[in-house]
Structure formats: C-alpha cells, structure tokens
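Follow-up to my earlier ticket, as requested here are the two runs.
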Amino acid sequence: MSAFSAVKILHAHPSLAVRSSAAESSSNKPKPSFPSSPSSPFNSTNPSSSSSSLSSSPLRGNRRRPILAVSSDVVSKKQQQRPPLVATPAVTREESLELYEDMILGRTFEDMCAQMYYRGKMFGFVHLYNGQEAVSTGFIKLLSRADSVVSTYRDHVHALSKGVPARAVMAELFGKATGCCRGQGGSMHMFSAEHNLLGGFAFIGEGIPVATGAAFTSKYRYEVLKESNPNGLDVTLAFFGDGTCNNGQFFECLNMAQLWKLPIVFVVENNLWAIGMSHLRSTSDPEIWKKGPAFGMPGVHVDGMDVLKVREVAKEAIERARRGEGPTLVECETYRFRGHSLADPDELRKPDEKAHYATRDPITALKKYILEHNLASESELKTIEKKIDDEIEEAVEFADSSPHPPRSQLLENVFADPKGFGIGPDGKYRCEDPKFTQGTAQV
C-alpha cells in the first residue's frame, strides 16, 4: 500500500453521520490515493520508516496520541504482512552525497550568517534554518529547474537548495548590488527568477496565495495553452510553518488547490514553536496533516529530522502533482536549533527539550547512515565539508567587496515601471539630483 493511500481520512462528527453517509452514497467521486510504491515511507520494509523516534518527543504529552498518518488498523495489517527486512540503502551513493553536501551547505551558510550578523555586516531581522535542513534538502533537490519554490522569512537555505549561488545569497544579506535581488530584498525576501525561487515573505501565510497562483499558471499553460512539457506539469512547493496553519490564506488556498487539482505541495515545517508560542498551546488539534483530508487531499506526517524519510514522502507527493492528480499537504515535524531570529535570546524553550532535539541532528543522522551503509568514507565526507567551507568563505569575501546599490536604484521596482517613480522631464531619475532629498530631514 502506498504511503499516501494509507492516510487516515477523518470521519465526520456523529451529528453529521447521516448527512455524510448520504452524500457518500450519492457520490461516485473517487477518494484521493497514490499508486503503490515499494519505497513508501510508511512501508515497514524500509529500515528508515520507523516513527518510534517521535514518540519520545518532550512535547508529545498534550497530543491525543503520537503523530502518525496511518491508522492503527493499517499498521496492524502491515505488521501481519511484513516481509523480511532488506538491507538495501534507500538512496544511491550519488544521491546520498548530494543530500549531504546540500545539508552541509545550508548549515555552514547559516552559521556564517550568525557570525556576520554579530559583526554588523547584516541588519534587521535574520532568521536561521539550523536543524531544519532535512526538509529543504529532502524536497527541493527532487525538483527540476522549471519547478517553483515559495519560501518564508526563513528562506536562505531554500534559496541555496534551489541552486541560487551562495555568493548571491550572502551578497543579498549584506545589502550589496551583487545580491540576487541587487540588495533590495535582504534576509526575508530572497528571489531569483532564473531559479524559479518566487520569494521569501516576511509575513506568515502571504506566500501561500503566490504559490497557488504559480501552480495555477503551470496547469493553465499545460492544459489550456497546450504548451508542451515532456515531464508533465511543473510543480510548486509552498513552504510555511506551523504558526501559519491557523491563518485564513492557508485554508482558502487548500480549497482552491484541491478544487482545481493544482500541481502544488503544501509543506508545513512544523518546528513546534511560533516565536515563543508552543504549537501545542495554540492549536486545538496539533496534528496539522489532518487538515489535508478535510479538503479532500492527502495529508501526511513525516519525521522532518530524517532527510531520507522526507525525501520518500516528497518524491511521491511531487510525482503525484506532476501527473495532474492534485495537491498534497505534508507536515514535517522538525526543530530549529537557534532562537526564532538572531535577536531572540531563546529563553522560552526548555533546555532539556533543546538537548533532546540536538541529539537528533539531521546532518549527523545522514552521516551515520552513509558510513553504516558504506556509501562513502569519512575522508570523502570531510572533503565535501572542506569544499563547502571554502565556498562560504569565498561568498563572504565576494559580498564584503561588492559595491552598495547606487542611489538611482532607490525607487526602482517600486511600481510596475522598472525605472520606478521619480523620473524627471529630462528622463533622469529625480533622486540623482543632489537636491532630491533636500528638506526631508525636517519632514
């Protein structure tokens, strides 16, 4: 049975039982399901599929039961039919090294960001991704160049995974003209048309409608304009956190995406905290994956600290979207190793909770897997780490030596006119006039 066909579809409230049963009997609409997959993340033949590591979470106490996207009767049937375990790795050597390099890139980049922030090279709010690398890598490294990613304010690593060069991301953080947004975006607004990174968004939930629109564009081009695409539909990934899942845009876009069968995957990076608010104290039912079946789409929960589990779920969801079978909601339960932002002293989370998740570092887990399955040697992994260290050092040097944006760029990209507002009769920018800002200090 496929991972997603095993998703538990919630039954209606008893008071609605008559209505729902009548509706079911009068409707021939098929339930969403996935094709059978031997490498399903909930297939007990996969050594990495165990979810027992989640049951020891220090935040599990308030849940009605451990988070599982598979109902107990399915689990029991699986156990009865369980074949012998197969020791074949879930990934090839090349795939494992690609995953490891991308996760090391994300972690090293963010650690360097912290250094540069405290040295005064970056300004404003900077939100780091440490601890969540398995989600970005597990999903984005499965995409093609034509597929799109919509991010959040924690967007540096999403940009790196999508292929935006580290030097372009670092320069953007430094506010330099060589950044991927020419220094006008900064930490929370990474964008690259070349890589189909459709932006980081500072306010929670505001990127979800953009992602839904991108998915609609893909479907419209393919089905209405008949633009040829041998790979099927281009897919959009919408990343957002647990705090977003009680916002209106989330529900509206899930409804539209399922109604129109859009090629989109909604990826919830549930790091259990919305700044200083525990997810368990802010949500009536903390199992976010259940909100997918409420709209008729599959809802899946996966251990977001295990890149191999994330990758298996991601592969099935992306392929499903590419075939035109509609959206999927994936809840990745993960954890951030730093405060909400670099301005957050991180005093609200308990030390034992942070220590617990530190032992589940996704990079350490993947490294252990690679070595145990003889996919690479320790020296090969150190070579990758050295390569990334050099790349990040070069990115900092590039960003530091790059020029600041000129004053003439100040009003560009404010309006649809690429030159922006403020062009004088002579065709030159008014802001180039030395007297342009005269008197503004008094204002």
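Run two:
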Amino acid sequence: MEDQNDASNSTLISDQSLDTAVQKKHQAMIQRLSNRHQARTRSKESESPSFESTDSFLSCFSNLKQTINSEINQIEQTPESFTKEDLDKVSVLINDLEKLVAENSYHLPSYEVRASLKTVGELKESLEKVSVKLVPKKKFSFKSKAVKQRQPIVGMEKGKVEKPEVVSDDKPSMMLDGPGFKNREREFLVENLKGKDMGEFTLSELDSCEARLIGRSRAIFIHKLKNCKVYAGPALGSVLIDDVEGCVFVLASHQIRIHNARQCDFYLRVRSHPIIEDSSKVRFAPYCLQYDGIEDDLRESRLDEENGSWANVDDFKWLRAVQSPNWSVLPENERIGSFHASIADS
C-alpha cells in the first residue's frame, strides 16, 4: 500500500513538473512576442527603415523570418499551451514582414520582391495549418474568401460607357498565395478592398476586361493583359507590371515597375520615378481616380501629395542622355479626365 502511495505521489510530482515546464515555455513565448510587439509599436512612431542595400534587406528579412518560424514551430510542438491570442500575435509579425517587403521594394530587384512575398505567403500558410489545432476551421485565416453571390456594381465614367458583364470574384486567381482575377475575357471585375487586411492582389491573363480595385492593398501584380482598363486605389508598396498591350492603367503606389508594355497609357501617383523596361509607345499622365474615401486611403498610404514623379520615367533599356523614344507625356486633350468609381451595397 505504501508503495502505491509513493508511485501515486511520484506521478503527481511528474505531472506538476510537466505543467510547470509548459507554463514556462508559454510565458517565454509570450514575452518574446510582447517584446516584438513593443518594438513594432515604437517603429510606427517614425518612418519605416529603408534598406538601399539588397544584402542588408535580405539579412533583416531572414532574421525576422527565422523568428516567426521558431514561434510557429513551438506552437506546433505544444499546441495545448497556446491560445488564439498567441496566434494573432504571430500573425502581426508576419504582416510586419510583408510590410517590410512592400516599403523597401523600390531598392530591390523584382525577383527578390517576388521571392520575399512568396516566403510571406508560405509563413501565412504554415500558421494557418497550426491554427486548426487550436481554433475551429475557418475561424482563423489570412485568405480573402470569395463572394459567391453576384453584387450590383456602379461605376460611372464621363459620357456613356457600354459595360461588359458584371461579375464578382467568385473564381479568385492565386498568385503568390494572394487573391486576384485571372483568365477572364470581356468581363467587368470589381474588388472592394476596404476593411480587409489585404496583401498582394493579382490581375493575370485578362483580355478586354475592366477591373476596379477600390481601397488599399500592399502590392499589385499585373501580368498578361490585353485591351484592358485597370483602376486601382493606392498600394502601400509596389505595382509590378509585365507583358501588357493596349491597356489603360490608373494606379497609385510607392513604386511602379513596368516590363514589356506596348501602346499603354498610365495615369500614376507614385513617390519614386516609374521604371520601364523593354517597353514602347507608353504614355504617362497624373492619377485621376476618385471614389468615396480615396483621400483617406491616399493619406494613410502616404500618397496624398502629388510630387510630379509620374512624368519622370526611368527607362532601364535607354542609357543615353537624350529623352527615351519609348515613353512620352500623354497630351492633356487626350486624357480621360477625372474617373469616379463606386460600389453599391450588396
């Protein structure tokens, strides 16, 4: 009998030790997250850092990525010791990593931007997989869910406009794990980004479509568009454009890089000089999009001031001192003027 009591006491002590170890691990993780959160909050009081050296950016990016991976691994190993609030704190760190990429994309090669955003997407997926062990499915998600029902869209341009078929984004394209429109022809495409924690948005393989993005995003990727019109609210980081022809783009971003564009008009609000490569017969004019709340979106994206950069285009394939023949300023009498877009309540 005495031996049984001793065994029972030993088991109790062992359980208590295990609980104490789990609690210590949990507290240590909470402390690390708290320190990261405080550092993030302090950094918001000043301008975010800008890494003009690709190596220094990659070093900072790698360090933060390793920290996030470490926290996710700890949650995966002992999910019973963590809560949804812990997941939310790691989510904030991932969002900060995505913001770091967006705000420094001007100094990075386009392939580094794409690789970094792909890493961010993988971290989001990893955290979401871990979250299902703690929280019921669909309660914790980075992804923007598609709207299954059609919504009435109102978007008026000066004069009469014959609209293509109105559709909602019920077949979202996934590029770099982000939402978007893909493989569409002669459609009227609208995405309301307001109120969403939106990362990158993709427009890919569109023909004779009109696309409107109302609200803010972190980055926009545009690939293989022909005879399209794109009107987009401000992007905090970059707009990357590749292989477009006969299109009209109305865009606002900190950096806009254009590759392989032919006979396109760009209406831009941009903090740095627009960059073109392997492009011809492209024309530029100032940003002209209007929608309810756009002034707030531009201000929060630090794009509220027009600095004239839209007219100072850098052609990376034209190294001579004279004006590049591949781009020009769009004559005022050929501009579309102010364009207003709105979304009716669903």
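The only thing I checked on run two: Confidence is low (pLDDT under 50) at residues 41-48, 137-177. Let me know what else you need.
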